[in-house]
Amino acid sequence: MTDGPERPERLELPIRRSSPWPYLVIGALLGAAFEMLVSLPLGAVFRNLFEHIFGGNPFRLTIAVARLAQPGETLFDSLTGFMLGAALGLVFYRLRENQQRLHDLHQEFEMQVAALRHHYKNLAIGINGFSGRARRKLEKLRPQLDDCVLPDADLRVEIDALEQNLNILTEASERLNHTLKDELSFLKALQSGPVTQAPQDFFPVLRHAVQDLLGLRFREKEIRVEINGDPLNEYCGAPLVFPFDPVTLEVILQNILSNAMQYGDFIQIKAAAENGRVRVEIRDNGPGIEMEVIKSSLVSKGTRQGAESSQLGLRVTLHLLEKGGGHLSAMSKPGLGTTFILEFPKQSSVSQKGAGG
After folding, report:
1. Which of 31, 87, 273, 329 is at 20 to 30 A from 259, Cα to Cα?
2. Does residue 40 fall inside a structural domain?
3. How far apart are CA 169 and CA 53, in angstroms?
4. Closest Cα to residue 277, out of 329, 315, 312, 229?
């Protein structure tokens, strides 16, 4: 495989940014006004009262007012209030931006998942019903075939193949129904706070995600997958243990892997721990695209480039990674394939705090 670009670019969810200047100006003016009209007068009064109690100086409001007239002290305090107000305005601006970002993502995701769950549920019911009807007809045909004096050998082979295909179809519908049940916990994880993470081995989840895609969605496509240089079924490296939620991690992996398998037929996966983080690199030998196209897919909500577009999957992947303290980077160029790099914390935030304490 030809090497791609040397430096990956980190991907981030877009934010509908408004200008921070109104927040800065209003915060600075409010801070200066508060300092001049509230903080300075109260400070002068309490200072004069303190000197009266402990120093025997006369307590007079005129003395406090006279101190307010000192230009150097007043200017310094006003500037302090101005700067603190501007800083608070900037903090409020950041909070509003993050709130809007989460609101937009949750709203978009809930709408898309509601439609997907409806279609997948109907698909699973249809597959199950079709396989059941075909199996019942096949059971009625079996005795008639056995009663034939000279049964056709080729016909028997075709019926056996049909029965195997029905078994595959039934298994697929059962797995699809099982996946739909898992969506409830997945949606709960997305709409609640940080996902529940526990230390466990990464490779079993990775194998399951790959085999699930190869066995269902890409069953008819010849795809070669390697993990750390070894074929998928032969890899037996040391466990890679770090805290994660298996349902969330499988969604992340399948979103990235399905895109790689759609455009390429040779997938190289490298996973290792380095510098306190777990790095997972997924590279395909597909045609590759410009990085600007990948970035624009994160911005263009509600549009689709085709039935197989993974724009929503990439946005949700970024959201789930950020909730768990992870990052996503990418390298892609026409003719050189595409590489996605997932990074996860090697330790949870609770463990890191405990170690630091």
Report:
1. 273
2. yes
3. 89
4. 329
